[in-house]
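Fig. S4 source data, part A: sequence.
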Amino acid sequence: MSRYLSAPLRQHLQDNRQMIFLVGPRQVGKTTLAKSFLTPPLPGITYFNWDNTDDRKRLSTQVIPGKLRLDAPNQAVIVFDEFHKYPHWKNALKGLFDLYEPHTHWIVTGSAALNVYRKGQDSLLGRSFTYHLAPFSVAELLNLTPPLSATPVEHLLEMTPSRAGKEADDAFTHLMQWSGFPEPLFKASPQFLIQWRRSRLDRLINQDLAAIENLRNLSLVETLMFLLPAKVGSPLSIASLREDLNVHFATVKHWLTLLEHVFYGFSLSPYTGNMARALKKERKWYLWDWTELDTPGLRFENLVAVHLWKYVNFVNDTGLGDLSLHYLRDKEKHEIDFIICNKQKPILAIECKNRDQTPSSALAYYGKRLTIPRLIQLVAEPIDPIKVSTNGVTIDLLSAADFLKELV
């Protein structure tokens, strides 16, 4: 299947000089997507995988020292896979980029570390654009074209999802059961899902974490990973985790950051209208593989979180807008699961309900006080679209499949 980033990446290669940094969770399909731009992939010539012994030797002894030229006419695109595991990968890429631009285009993939450098000054700034590849979604399974005819804000505010029918419902149900990762999704085998998940988590701990930092307490980080699924969907108390692990507060905070960097999960900050305050508030944590969650309601909320994260990052990565994803909760515990902001101003509030079609009081409460333009309550079960007026605001009650098919 053609992935949702295929067209934007092809356009990037045509229009821009910058390297493509393609990042995302392990086994989400980055290598397959990157190789699709090579006709065909030639190991050691147009495709290099640092995990492959021969490729690693060729890179270390010939490519990086400049003994092997990579700018032949038939080598317009070159892919470096897992190159961040080379200790001096940033300087090596800078040297190669400066030597060969603008005739050679580079795609660099990684399950970790490639997104870390952006937090501060780095030699690669201005030489690369980052694109995030997320798991499969309802829209992608239905092979729907990403909505580019309108601006993202207009699309979110004006879309009118209709009852999608059996195909979208089946795609949603399939994702709920098998995750959005290609192998377990298309294999659809309970035994394979268990084996795949165990293998993925083992490689994430023993390879990806080890590649970006020398950790002396990998067993405790693994314990932290086992604790996190139970915390999904609620404000995450680092103090509570610190007590469970018997380590310092700063240590747990650092480990959580590392787990985000290796794409085990991601966190959302609360919306407060003041980002300085938001940084001091508890964040909510979600997993990339929502099948780790057994509770249907939490699994549903996590699936929606990944879909929204995917849409927001697609918009930002492709230069279509400046969106951010948050949640909302006050001291009285009025809470909304998700808030999408445009330039830090709320434009869409979403509440997830497994079966309940009673309009959310929190949506009505915040919708009026913050004048949020659109309020949506998603229901996991198939329902006909309904508009309900309450407390002076209008709430859209939508089937999750109908709404999610409108994203990417």
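Fig. S4 source data, part B ends here. The chain has a mean pLDDT of 91.
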